[in-house]
Design a protein that fits this description.
GO terms for molecular function: transmembrane transporter activity. This protein has about 400 residues and is mainly alpha-helical. The protein has helices at about 10-35, 40-45, 50-85, 85-105, 110-120, 125-135, 140-170, 175-195, 210-215, 220-240, 240-250, 255-285, 290-305, 310-340, 345-375, 375-395, 400.
Length: about 400
C-alpha cells in the first residue's frame, strides 16, 4: 500500500511524480484531441458513404471508445489496487501508443472501429495518475496537487486541435495517428524511468467489487460523488453536438462561424487552466465541500443564462465563466473521493469515476442531439441545467457527510 509521507526527504518523490504525470496527462489530452475533430473527415476517406451512413459510422466509431472504457474500468481499477498504479500507467500509455499508431494504417471502417474499441480497453492513464497522486500526496497539499494535475488534460485538449489542424494541413490525417502514437510512447518511457511508487499489495485489496462497496463506511458519499461526475460529463458533452450550430445561429458573418465556434468551445478549458489550482488551494484551506457547492450553484446559473442568451458576446462570456465552475467541480470531486476511499480501494474508486465519465460522454451527446432535434438549441442548455439541479439536490442530501472532506 502506498502511504502518504510528509517527511521532507520524501517530498521530492511526489513532486517529481506530479511533474511527470502532469506531462503525461497533458500529452494524453493532446493526443486524443488531435484526432477527434478530424475523425469524421478521416472516416470519409475510407469509403463512399451517404451523409446518413457517414453520420452513423462516425457516431458509432467515436462512441465505441467510451463504451469500452465504461465496461473495462472496474477491472483495471481492481488490478490497480492489487498490482499498483504504476503498472496500470504503463499498460495504458503503451497500449494507447500501439493502437493509435496502428490507426494510421487502416483501410476500412471496421478496422478503425476495432482499434477504437482497443483504445477504450487500454484507457486509464488519467484516472490512475489521479489515484497515484491521491494516495501519495500529503493531505494538506491534496487540493493543490489534484487541481494542478487536472489542468494537464485540459491544457492538452485545448492545444491538440490546433496541433492536429496544422499536421493535417501540412501532411495528412494518417500522420496525426502516427505522431500521437510516438507521443504516447514517450509518455510510457518517462513513466518507466521517472514515476516512483511504493506499493505493497494487501489481501483486502482483492475483495470483490460488490463486497467492497457493501463494506465501505462512506459508501453514500462515494456514490454521491460518482453521480456528480456523471452529471458534469453529461452536461458538458450534451451541448457539444449543437455548439457550432448554436454559434452559427447567433453570428451574422458565416466566414466567422468556424473561428468563433473554436473560441466558444475552448473558452472553459482556457479559464480552467488558471483557476483549477486556485480552487484546489482554497479547498484545502476552507473545505472542498464549500468549493463543490459553489461550483454547482455557479454552473446551474450559467447554463440557465446560456439558454436565454441572444448574442454571441454573451455566450462567450458565459462559456468563460463555465470554466470557473468546472474548475470548482471536477477537482473537488476527485479530492473528496481520495479522502473517503480506503487506500486498498483507491484504484477501483477512481476507475468507477472514470466509468461514470465515459457513460456521461456517451449519453450526453445523444441527449443533446435529441433535445435539439425536437425543440431548440437553447433548450439543450435548459435541460442541462435540469441535470445540474439534480447535483444540487444530491449535495444537499449528503451535505453533513461532505463537511468532513
Amino acid at each position: 500500500m502506498t502511504t502518504p509521507n510528509t517527511n521532507v526527504k520524501e517530498r521530492p518523490v511526489w513532486r517529481r511524480n506530479l511533474k511527470i504525470l502532469w506531462f503525461g496527462t497533458f500529452m494524453t489530452g493532446v493526443g486524443g484531441s488531435m484526432i477527434s475533430p478530424f475523425l469524421s473527415l478521416f472516416i470519409d476517406t475510407l469509403g463512399h458513404f451517404t451523409r446518413a451512413q457517414l453520420s452513423l459510422q462516425s457516431g458509432l466509431i467515436f462512441a465505441s471508445t467510451y463504451l469500452m472504457t465504461a465496461i473495462v474500468s472496474p477491472f483495471w481499477g481492481k488490478l490497480a489496487d492489487t498490482k499498483g498504479r504504476k503498472p496500470m500507467l504503463l499498460r495504458a500509455s503503451l497500449g494507447m501508443a500501439i493502437t493509435i499508431f496502428a490507426m494510421g494504417f487502416v483501410t476500412r471502417t471496421w478496422q478503425l472501429l476495432g482499434l477504437r474499441l482497443l483504445l477504450g480497453a487500454f484507457s486509464g492513464f488519467v484516472s490512475n495518475s489521479v489515484a497515484l497522486m491521491a494516495v501519495s500526496t500529503p493531505k494538506k497539499y491534496a487540493g493543490r496537487v489534484l487541481g494542478t494535475l487536472s489542468t494537464g488534460m485540459v491544457a492538452g485538449t485545448l492545444l491538440g486541435p490546433i496541433v492536429g489542424g496544422v499536421i493535417v494541413n501540412q501532411t495528412s490525417y494518417r500522420a496525426t495517428f502516427w505522431i500521437t502514437g510516438v507521443i504516447m510512447l514517450l509518455v510510457f518511457i518517462l513513466t518507466v524511468f521517472f514515476v516512483k511508487e511504493q506499493f505493497t499489495p494487501q489481501a483486502s485489496a482483492k475483495t470483490g467489487s460488490l463486497k467492497l462497496l457493501a463494506h465501505l463506511p462512506s459508501l453514500k458519499v462515494i456514490i454521491s460523488m460518482l453521480l456528480v461526475t456523471l452529471v458534469i460529463q453529461l452536461t458538458d458533452k450534451s451541448i457539444m453536438p449543437i455548439l457550432s450550430l448554436y454559434v452559427r445561429q447567433l453570428v451574422h458573418d458565416p466566414h466567422q462561424v468556424t473561428i468563433i465556434s473554436g473560441i466558444v468551445a475552448s473558452a472553459p478549458g482556457a479559464v480552467m487552466i488558471i483557476t483549477a489550482p486556485i480552487f484546489g488551494r482554497l479547498g484545502d484551506k476552507y473545505g472542498q465541500h464549500r468549493i463543490l457547492l459553489g461550483g454547482i450553484l455557479l454552473a446551474l446559473t450559467l447554463y440557465i443564462l446560456q439558454g436565454f442568451a441572444t448574442s454571441i458576446v454573451a455566450v462567450i462570456i458565459l462559456r468563460l465563466l463555465v470554466g470557473v465552475s468546472d474548475s470548482a467541480l471536477a477537482p473537488s470531486v476527485q479530492i473528496i473521493l481520495s479522502r473517503f476511499a480506503p487506500a486498498t480501494a483507491t484504484g477501483r474508486i477512481f476507475s468507477y469515476n472514470q466509468m461514470m465519465q465515459s457513460i456521461g460522454a456517451v449519453i450526453g451527446p445523444l441527449a443533446g442531439s435529441a433535445v435539439a432535434a425536437y425543440f431548440s438549441y437553447q433548450t439543450v442548455f435548459l435541460v442541462a441545467a435540469g441535470f445540474i439541479l439534480l447535483n444540487l439536490i444530491n449535495y444537499v442530501w449528503n451535505a453533513k457527510a461532505l463537511r468532513a472532506a
